[in-house]
Amino acid sequence: MNMKGLIPSPPCSSAASSSSSSSTFLRPPCLTSASRSSKFPRLSPQAICTSQRIYHCSGVHTEACHNSYLSKNYIVARFSSGWSETQPLFSKQSLKKYLVPLGALVTSKTQDASDTPIVGDDKIGVLLLNLGGPETLEDVQPFLFNLFADPDIIRLPRLFRFLQKPLAQFISVLRAPKSKEGYASIGGGSPLRQITDAQGEELRKFLWAKNVPANVYVGMRYWHPFTEEAIEQIKRDGITKLVVLPLYPQFSISTSGSSLRLLESIFREDEYLVNMQHTVIPSWYQREGYIKAMADLIEKELINFGHPEQVMIFFSAHGVPLAYVEEAGDPYKAEMEECVDLIMEELEKRRITNAYTLAYQSRVGPVEWLKPYTDETIIELGQKGVKSLLAVPISFVSEHIETLEEIDVEYKELALKSGIEKWGRVPALGCEPTFISDLADAVIESLPYVGAMAVSNLEARQSLVPLGSVEELLAAYDSQRRELPPPVTMWEWGWTKSAETWNGRAAMLAVLVLLVLEVTTGEGFLHQWGILPSFR
Questions:
Q1: Main-chain phi, psi angles of 25, to 5 degrees
Q2: What 3-state class would DSSP assign to 5?
């Protein structure tokens, strides 16, 4: 169903409960490696609870646990009803009093709307953000162009940024034939839009059932319906309060961050959006509904193995360049590792204590990405004698090319060649009711903070989910990090840690030189192929 239309008649809602309920942060227990029987080393650091802080949010008691290895992982929790062109970015010192510690498992029991009016006369909108994907084979090359033209995906040195679009065109044309083969193998296009629309419709139904009438919109970053299209529909519908919800459980500069940067530029240029109150839920990997839904799917798939207790649970997450984490401060790796820990803790409660590991897939280009790599880890597990493997696409909530083709075809084939005899794969969450219901609860919990001016007494009004305006959320990450490095990063004195990396960087440098010559001379194979326009 097209999510950009008007709201249909609400479904019948259940009777209001007379008992009061609340939402709380539950402090996760400190993790110990001895609690799991695994002959494989854990990839996640131990979450050692070093301190606690007690907050009171509109009469709701919340408790947050600081994790020593997440001491720098914060989300801004300051809200404003509008945008300010002259508002400076937060300084490192001023940031400290506006930051909310992450790392706690969120348990949600949403208050009844009849007891806590949070809608009133406002028109509520929820904007779901996602990557997007080509729906036909003809869409593949322009989709790839949009992807690689994003400076949050490929960062060029400042001197060469004018080459962003020519380079994106070159890469997209070069990669399109191979990508088309992948999309052809899964039916001729990505199902991402169809699944995301279905998730949005189910979310709308859950919100109506919880007495929160809201429009739900879908905005894709790199393909239709583009975020700009969703924003135009939001304006036509007269939305006055907007909750922005990226469909990425863990925050990353290259996923949620890129979509939020686009929103920031759109908001700054539009008077209607400047006056529209909004808030952002940047990540939600620690929410109880999400954790339980993932554990449910894993438990269900384990039953399909003859000896479930012998199965290695293999979490495969989408990778990001290592420099994003180490040099740019991207919290993705820390959030991913904590997410895996929370899922395994939930499985332990169900007496499931399988060995598990985490690896990262989908790396492209010559730069070093987060390790261990999924393909290399599969080979190593086969060499260590693992015979049963259950793949869990941990960073994906919808089926698309990276689950249907990369995991189901490429990695399965690699696993069988590496000596792994039994292979299974946990499906993406899709419209799983526990998951969607919890997303609805997250939206409802965020509504009291949409546009709330809570700077002066923030200590008494910490948000129940990590929230912040688009501008301030990005400021929190930008103000304490250096600019992302370009994809071509030389080691000291020109040496690299691997010949593969060296060859890739040399190739990238050669491409940049060729592009400069093409642009300056107006001649070359890119002009001959019609990729770059001729000005003669």
A1: -80, 130
A2: coil
DSSP assignment of 25-62 equals EEPPPPP-GGGS--SS--SSPP--EEEEEEEEETTEEE
- Closest to 10 (Cα-Cα) out of 237, 204, 242: 204
Q: pLDDT of 448-495, one tens digit each?
A: 888 753 332 333 233 334 456 666 666 655 554 444 444 333 222 333
Q: Which two tokens stand for residue 337?
A: 């590792």
| Axis crossing angle, helix 140-148 with helix 164-185, rounded to the nearest 10 | 140
In the chain, the amino acid numbered 316 is: S
What CA–CA distances, in Å, run from 367 to 43, 75, 169, 228, 399?
Answer: 22, 28, 20, 31, 27
- Cα separation, 224 vs 135, in Å, equals 9
Question: What is the edge-to-edge ordering of all strands in the sheet holding 124-130?
Answer: 214-220, 124-130, 241-246, 277-280
| Residue at 80: amino acid letter | S
Of the two residues 426 and 258, the one the predictor is more confident about is: 426
Amino acid at site 293:
A
C-alpha 296: how far from chain center: 21
**Which pair of tokens denotes residue 42?**
């854990």
Instruction: Please state, in angstroms and rounded to a whole number, the distance separating the CA atoms of residues 230 and 249.
Output: 21
Kindly provide the b/e burial profile for residues 7-23, where b requires at least 16 CB atoms within 10 angstroms of the residue's own CB: eeeeeeeeeeeeeeebb
Tokens coding 93: 């010192």
Query: DSSP letter at 328?
Result: T
**How far is it, in rounded angstroms, from Cα 495 to Cα 240?**
55
Say which residue the tokens 């131990």 belong to. 46
The tokens for 415 are 């696993």
The tens digit of pLDDT for each residue in 13-63 reads 333 333 333 322 222 333 333 333 333 333 333 332 323 332 233 333 333
Task: Give the residue from 109, 103, 105 showing the smallest Cα distance to 349.
Answer: 105
To the nearest 10 degrees (0 to 180), the angle between helices 433-446 and 192-209 is 60
Interatomic CA distance for residues 100 and 403, integer angstroms? 33
What number of other Cβ atoms are within 10 A of residue 93's Cβ?
A: 7
3-state SS assignment for residue 239 = coil
Q: 516: which 2 tokens?
A: 């400069």
Retrieve residue 430's tokens.
């899709």
Euclidean distance between CA atoms 417 and 419, whole angstroms: 6
What is the tally of helices (H) and strands (E) in the chain? 17, 14
Cis peptide before 372 (omega within 30 of 0): yes
What are phi and psi for residue 408, nearest 5 degrees?
-70, -30
